[in-house]
Amino acid sequence: MYQNVLFDLDDTLLDFQAGQQAGITKILQSQGVQDIERGLAAFKQINQHVWQQIEQGADRQPLFDQRFNDLFAQFDKQVDGLALQQWYAKMEAANYHTMPDVHAILQQLSNNGVHIYAASNGETGMQQQRLSGAGLLNYFDAVFISEELGVAKPDPRFFEQIMATCPALTCKNTVMVGDSWQSDVRGAQNAGLDCIWIAPNDQVPSAKFDYQIKIAHDLKQAVQLILK
């Protein structure tokens, strides 16, 4: 049994995709885009590239401010990308969707004496607001967000700062739980931590993994591995 768990937030505890789809749909409709499905797919591709750059150390804000210009360029439309980004950020911050059974799962861990921490890439204020709005904030001993730490997963310095702040966390008593192979699994490996990968859509590993990596297909299965 692990004594401490570091949880990723988006698409692990918080249902980021549900809120994102609703927000991007509103933005596409506001600019007269008819093919919403194409627009959602285009934004997803652009956003994945944005986060790949952030995880490699790029400055997040210029990338965020540019992504809607890039999106609507695919529809031959000129837009105020900065204004759309600001609107989208407000919608993101009010995205309180959670994954199924999150409250019961976090309570179960707490009842078993597990200390719960958030370890997420993202903007500090936004993630704090979303956790509070979803009623999850009180479950966490501490919340660590990449913007505040100044470095993003999978950089090992992200985890080093967490463990320096919380000396009770060690590589033997702590596990990382997340849905991203690149940021969560690779990040945990880089820091010498065990990891439980919640494999999206029952994916299989994209690269060889060692004994430190355990695979779960949902949060309930992840909890079984944490408490085992």
Would you kindly provide a brief summary of this structure?
With 228 residues, the protein is of the alpha/beta class. The protein has helices at residues 16-30, 36-55, 60-73, 81-93, 102-111, 124-133, 146-149, 156-165, 181-191, 219-227; strands at 4-7, 115-120, 142-145, 174-178, 194-198, 213-216.
Keywords:
alpha/beta, globular, 12% strand
3D architecture notes:
With about 230 residues, the chain is an alpha/beta fold. The chain has helices spanning about 15-30, 35-55, 60-75, 80-95, 100-110, 125-135, 145-150, 155-165, 180-190, 220-225; strands at about 5, 115-120, 140-145, 175-180, 195-200, 215. The protein has a 6-stranded parallel beta sheet with strand order 3-2-1-4-5-6, with helices on both faces. Helix 6 (about 125-135) links the parallel strand 2 and strand 3 (about 140-145). Helix 1 packs across helix 2 and helix 8 (about 155-165) crosses helix 9. The longest helix has 20 residues, at about 35-55. It is globular and about 55 Å long. The model has no long low-confidence stretch (mean pLDDT about 90).
